[in-house]
């Protein structure tokens, strides 16, 4: 069962890459804009992960403090 989910993940990633490549090719989307959006996406993702880690650390600290 793990193989099937791995296959569908790889298929999804390849489909996303194909869509971005099609947008660059057919709509003349500048690669510079695509890279800028990718960097912006990664920054937002890092902020979300950092907030989740901080929230988890805070909850863990509050649990240990009550005992």
Distance between the termini: 41 Å
Strands, total number = 0
Overall pLDDT level: 90
Derived from helix and strand composition plus strand pairing, the structural class reads mainly alpha
Amount of beta strand: under 5%
Biggest β-sheet strands, sense, barrel:
none
Coarse morphology? elongated
Fraction of helical residues: over 70%
Number of domains: 1
Succession of helices and strands: HH
Radius of gyration computed on alpha carbons: 19 Å
- Uncertain segments of ≥5 residues (pLDDT<50)? none
Number of helices, where a helix is a run of at least 4 consecutive DSSP H or I residues: 2
At a glance:
The protein contains two helices and no strands. By secondary structure, the protein is mainly α. The mean pLDDT is 90.
Overview of the molecule:
This protein is mainly α and 67 residues long. The chain has helices spanning 2-26, 31-66. The radius of gyration is 19 Å and the shape is elongated. The chain starts with a helix and ends with a helix.
Question: What are its keywords?
Answer:
67 residues, mainly alpha
Q: What topology does this entry show?
A:
Blueprint: H1 2-26, H2 31-66
